[in-house]
Design brief:
Blueprint (H helix, E strand, L loop, with lengths): L5 H10 L8 H13 L9 H14 L5 H22 L8 H10 L10 H14 L4 H21 L6 H13 L5 H18 L24 H10 L2 H13 L3 H5 L6 E2 L4 E4 L8 E4 L5 H20 L11 H4 L19 E2 L6 E2 L5 H15 L7 H14 L4 H8 L4 H4 L1 H9 L11
Antiparallel strand pairs: 1-2, 2-3, 4-5
Length: about 425
């Protein structure tokens, strides 16, 4: 959007007496905020920018509903009247029409969309809010299942009562786990509250309550045996998960510039909650990692020579730094063996390795090590935290290394330590 003289807009509003004098400063404030708003792409149309701006305000806890309506009225006046007159009476993009529609309906669409239409709206909103592609897949999957259920039962899909019926069906007939039921609930809440702006009263009554669970943790000896059985690139990834306390998605998305060999620091970018953090880069892994990166660099050079070599960049980075996708520092540390088509952009790229590769390697290593625990890749992260606490590391430091928002989340490992320490002796053993 081209920068404009807001003073001109203020004069325009005053001369035509379009806004009461006591409200004019607020209208200027909202238009300035709209013009300074940051969007996910520089290629967004005016219509998309208005929708994105309205969504940003709706998610701002400090903005009241009446303020949202006032902001949209201000933007509508700016786009529909001021800019049109400044351009000689020609408008574009029907952005102002979208704003008027949102103002008059409190943020909802004038016509209730079909189930498939609502699903497509939700997909667009997920992308505007920069949700992970895996989250988009999960949410659209649950909404698709809900629409199929509602249609099969003869229920109106946009009726809150149908939502409660579906969640009860999942719990009572499908007997899904509490976490699965809550995942479906979160997807449907995003559809109704965020996408359609429709309240679903008393929905928390069907939210499943999950009891307190202790994580599965491997002993130090078990981890040593497991790592001895894990070989190749997948073995290197498993050692990095344990050595730095990484989530599986975090090790997959590591880029070359995230490894600081000089200071033995590993940077996690855009982790859970879109938060960055620094954690430990095990010194013992540095030689193996450097050898691995040399092989990846040769693969990247080959891709460049064949007309590929560009990697996916989040948000608007690709537009801000046009040459970055092909630069070495932005490449994935653990790239896929094959090129693939990006499902969102349609571009052919070399993505990172699939999580299934790591999960299979973990299962294979567990079998070879003959460790009979229900352990997954994430168990190595639990073990990392527990073993640090057992060696006297401060719990606040462990919290920062793990990227936990609250120390209460990290406290769960103190209960695990109690279970691994010296236990009370059974009275049966004293007989």
């Amino acid at each position: 959007m081209e920068p404009v003289d807001l003073k001109g807009f203020e004069v325009f509003v005053a001369e035509r007496n379009l806004v009461p004098e006591e409200k004019r400063s607020f209208f200027i404030h909202w238009v300035r905020r709209f013009l300074n708003a940051e969007f996910s792409s520089v290629d967004l149309s005016e219509k998309d920018k208005v929708e994105c701006f309205a969504d940003q305000l709706a998610r701002d806890g400090s903005v009241e509903d009446w303020q949202l309506r006032q902001a949209l009225q201000a933007v509508s006046l700016y786009l529909d009247s001021f800019l049109v007159e400044a351009a000689g009476g020609t408008g574009g993009d029907d952005a102002a029409g979208i704003v008027r529609e949102q103002v008059s309906h409190g943020g909802r669409d004038a016509d209730s969309p079909s189930g498939e239409g609502a699903l497509e709206q939700m997909r667009k909103l997920l992308r505007l809010r920069h949700y992970a592609y895996r989250t988009e897949q999960t949410y659209t999957m649950w909404v698709g299942r809900y629409l199929k259920y509602a249609g099969g039962q003869g229920l109106a899909w946009n009726n809150p009562g149908s939502v409660r019926a579906y969640l009860s069906y999942l719990a009572l007939q499908c007997k899904v786990a509490s976490s699965t039921q809550n995942q479906a609930l979160n997807a449907l809440m995003f559809l109704f509250r965020d996408t359609l702006r429709v309240d679903v009263p008393q929905i928390n009554a069907v939210r499943a309550k999950r009891g307190s669970k202790l994580p599965v943790v491997l002993s130090v000896d078990e981890v040593k045996v497991l790592m001895d059985r894990a070989s190749g690139t997948s073995g290197l990834m498993l050692r990095l998960v344990y050595g730095g306390g990484l989530r599986i998605s975090e090790v997959l998305r590591l880029r070359v510039q995230d490894l600081d060999f000089e200071n033995d620091v590993l940077f996690v970018r855009g982790g859970k909650g879109d938060k960055d953090r620094a954690t430990i880069l095990p010194e013992s892994l540095c030689p193996e990692l450097k050898d691995h990166l040399a092989k990846v660099h040769r693969l990247h050079e080959r891709d460049l020579s064949e007309g590929f070599g560009n990697v996916y960049l989040p948000g608007a980075l690709e537009h801000k730094y046009p040459h970055a996708p092909g630069e070495w520092k932005w490449q994935y540390v653990f790239p896929s063996a094959n090129l693939s088509v990006d499902p969102r952009s349609g571009k052919t790229r070399r993505h990172h390795v699939s999580d299934k590769v790591l999960q299979r390697a973990m299962r294979r290593a567990m079998g070879d090590a003959e460790i009979h625990k229900h352990a997954t890749v994430h168990t190595l992260r639990h073990s990392f935290a527990t073993h640090l606490l057992m060696t006297g590391t401060n719990i606040r430091e462990v919290q920062e290394l793990l990227g936990h928002k609250n120390v209460e989340t990290t406290m769960i490992y103190t209960h695990v330590i109690r279970g691994l320490g010296k236990r009370a002796q059974s009275p049966l053993d004293l007989l």
